[in-house]
């Protein structure tokens, strides 16, 4: 009976700490929560070892754990450990993507990036999404080459989700971890802007025009922000 009461008090204290974190966004409380639950978090992240390096795996796992603290709602009935488990299980997507990425030639990855840039530009110019034919014409490339790259993209071997991480993982997993860590240390508003410019965190990449409209920024401010991010990643 005493043990049950003690467990109940610990759960209540944890819920209260999470509530404080959700209200304040305190980095100190976030670190305390990660420390309090580190054994459980570590054990669940470790289950996914084998495909990607530990540095990348644990950086993503920590991110998902932090998101779990932000979204946890005890009134829904599930405990915090269940919520942590469900969030950390999103690592399956990272594993799946990196199982495939190594089989894609680097030149094709670069081609997909160029197609994305052309698509964003034409969307701004035409005020609609361009056709494959229009993209091929704009890039002065055979339509068959464009369709081949788009086919890979739509097959989910490479997509906009975590695009920067996946491209860099082909070249250098250490750099991928640096990108992820850099984003984690940005203020919340800049995280949203970073995601919108890079396609990180499963967000669509916005063209400069779309970005400026969404974040109420002038073209020179968008350019300055892109330069700021680029310098931070060097």
Could you describe the 3D structure shown?
There is one protein chain. With 234 residues, the chain is mainly α. The radius of gyration is 21 Å and the shape is globular. It has 14 helices and no strands.
What's a concise summary of this model?
This protein is an all-alpha fold. It is 75% helix and 0% strand.
What keyword list fits this structure?
234 residues, mainly alpha, 75% helix, globular, disordered N terminus
* End-to-end gap: 57 Å
Classification by helices and strands: mainly alpha
Overall average pLDDT: 75
Q: Outline the low-pLDDT stretches.
A: 1-11, 155-174
**Global Rg:** 21 Å
State which percent range the strand residues make up. under 5%
Shape: globular
> Total number of β-strand segments?
0
Total number of helical segments?
14
Bin the helical content.
over 70%
Topology pattern, helix = H, strand = E: HHHHHHHHHHHHHH
Largest sheet: none
Give the SSE layout.
Layout lengths: L1 H23 L2 H10 L1 H9 L7 H18 L8 H9 L2 H11 L4 H21 L5 H8 L3 H12 L8 H9 L1 H12 L3 H11 L9 H8 L3 H14 L2
Helix pairs in contact: 1-2, 3-4, 3-5, 4-5, 4-11, 7-8, 7-9, 8-9, 10-11, 13-14
